[in-house]
Inverse folding.
């Protein structure tokens, strides 16, 4: 599969003499041809980057970010700006500039917005790469979550965030011509910061965790397009501003909507820290349920506007649907095995605990790994039995550190998924090793044997 | 009336998820026929172990081996002198600008050179 994809790509790139050796390294070894070990001496090492993000996942993320960008136009900091910006463009059209020039203004505006945001996204990805494991540290997760929580409270109207005066006055200074269209785009981010800030902080953290500049660029570019699109369209039909619904109390509802989203993100970040595996999912389901009831049915805003009421109810129903989905996904599957991510520390602790150990080596893109997790490690007997073990997961998706490499060598791991069993003394029970998906009924006897051994 | 529609919608959501959770996913079987079909689709050729061995023993500099397994597999062991590109088996990689430039950088500018991927 790997060599097929790589060979096809090489052909696409114009290389004419491409062969695939489907039998691979085992056959090479068998024929007694020379081998070596160590890092690549030539060519580029590592650099998985965005390739580790699963395709449809990426597209869904970008779609979500795009819609989020459009929705941000409805926040109280951006929405009132729409008529101002649009009338600026409208003024252009009155001074006799033709449609084509207006288009250019609109494009410059979006360009300004994108440049600003994408620069932020890419730099977050670079620093994320530097910080790496720092962003997975519990203290950091709790801090980010606390910031998000504060932002949620801000959206619920419990406190106000104001931007420093010198910034707002710098932004409102007038500049002329095309430069101004560009500049307005560049600064929209700053003006709107109190409202879109929390959303952006969440996205930044996500991008920084992925540590991939291209990913950072894509996410923030898409966000800018979403954020700028309504204004861009309006700038082309500047006369239509009066048809927009007036700002009003329904904007408060939008704020509340973002408040719930922030709250959910806060929980999402601390989810891995919950001692009981599914607690985070239940909490998210609860938040979605509460949000659905509040936004759709309890909130008093906008009773007079019929369309708004319909939108409100629909969002409420969707949120309740999400809640059911989340709760259902856990309830139908039952609780799963509790895994600890691998680190030298957890490994030493596990050895000291004098329990037998099960280690699973997996990667994000690996289908049998997902099957193992979805079925075998959610098999109720396996889950029950797993309490007698220390369960450790090693993620081989990303570049591996020397520590993990030594582990792979020690246990002779050749691919993913591999599951190995260690006895209470920390020695591997070789005959129990698993290298593919196995159902629970085959996994269970191995656990029993490991406990006896 | 509206309430009934909402309720129906909710039930549908829940049922569709339940059905999805129950259904088993099946992986395609990896037979030699598949390998041949893939090669035809991808526009590259296949090389058998015997051919490879003969060519390597005759002139090991006539072609370059390219290891596309994971970084850690490569570091543990690879065929002597092989290049390395960590090529995760996901469709996005065919279009990823990063992967494209990495591939170009690793294989070099000579488009006629012979490469053997494994």
């Amino acid at each position: 599969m790997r060599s097929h994809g790589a060979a096809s790509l090489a052909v696409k790139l114009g290389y004419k003499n491409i062969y695939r050796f489907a039998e691979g390294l085992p056959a090479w070894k068998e024929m007694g041809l020379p081998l070596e070990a160590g890092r690549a001496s030539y060519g580029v090492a590592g650099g998985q980057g965005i390739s580790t993000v699963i395709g449809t996942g990426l597209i869904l993320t970008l779609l979500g970010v795009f819609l989020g960008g459009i929705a941000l136009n409805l926040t109280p900091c951006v929405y009132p700006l729409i008529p101002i910006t649009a009338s600026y463009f409208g003024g252009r059209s009155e001074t006799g500039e033709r449609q084509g020039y207006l288009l250019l203004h609109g494009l410059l505006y979006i360009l300004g917005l994108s440049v600003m945001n994408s620069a932020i996204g890419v730099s977050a990805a670079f620093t994320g790469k530097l910080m790496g494991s720092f962003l997975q540290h519990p203290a950091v997760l709790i801090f980010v979550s606390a910031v998000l929580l504060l932002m949620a409270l801000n959206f619920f109207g419990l406190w106000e965030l104001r931007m420093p005066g010198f910034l707002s006055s710098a932004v409102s200074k007038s500049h002329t011509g095309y430069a101004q269209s560009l500049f307005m785009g560049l600064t929209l981010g700053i003006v709107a910061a109190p409202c879109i800030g929390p959303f952006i902080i969440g996205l930044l953290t996500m991008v920084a965790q992925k540590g991939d500049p291209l990913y950072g660029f894509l996410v923030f570019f898409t966000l800018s397009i979403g954020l700028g699109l309504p204004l861009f369209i309006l700038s082309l039909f500047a006369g239509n501003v009066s048809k927009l619904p007036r700002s009003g109390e329904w904007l408060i509802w939008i704020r509340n909507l973002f408040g719930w989203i922030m709250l959910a993100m806060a929980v999402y970040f601390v989810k891995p820290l919950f001692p009981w595996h599914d607690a985070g999912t239940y909490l998210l389901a609860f938040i979605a349920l509460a949000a659905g009831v509040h936004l759709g049915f309890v909130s008093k805003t906008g009773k007079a506007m019929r369309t708004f009421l319909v939108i409100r109810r629909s969002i409420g129903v969707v949120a309740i649907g999400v809640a059911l989905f989340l709760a259902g996904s856990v309830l139908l599957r039952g609780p799963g095995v509790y895994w600890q991510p691998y680190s030298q520390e957890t490994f030493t602790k596990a050895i000291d605990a004098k329990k037998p150990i099960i280690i699973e080596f997996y990667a994000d893109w690996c289908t049998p790994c997902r099957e193992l997790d979805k079925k075998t490690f959610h098999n109720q007997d396996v889950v029950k039995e797993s309490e007698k073990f220390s369960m450790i997961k090693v993620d081989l998706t990303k570049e591996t550190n020397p520590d993990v490499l030594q582990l792979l060598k020690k246990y002779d791991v050749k691919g993913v998924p591999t599951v190995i069993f260690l006895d209470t003394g920390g020695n591997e029970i070789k005959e129990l090793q698993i290298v593919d998906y196995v159902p629970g009924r085959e996994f269970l006897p191995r656990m029993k044997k490991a406990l006896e051994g | 009336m509206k309430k009934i529609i909402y309720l129906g919608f909710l039930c549908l959501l829940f049922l569709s998820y339940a059905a999805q959770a129950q259904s088993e996913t099946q992986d395609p079987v990896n037979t030699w026929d598949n390998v041949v079909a893939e090669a035809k689709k991808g526009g590259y050729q296949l090389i058998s172990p015997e051919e490879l061995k003969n060519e390597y023993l005759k002139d090991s500099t006539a072609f370059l081996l390219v290891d596309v397994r994971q970084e850690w597999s490569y570091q543990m062991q690879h065929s002597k002198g092989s290049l390395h590109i960590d090529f995760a088996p996901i469709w996005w990689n065919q279009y990823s600008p990063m992967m494209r430039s990495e591939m170009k950088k690793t294989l070099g500018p000579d488009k006629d050179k012979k490469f053997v991927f494994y």
In short: Chain A touches chain B through 77 residues (CB under 8 Å). Residues 41-54, 129-133 of chain A have pLDDT under 50 and may be disordered.
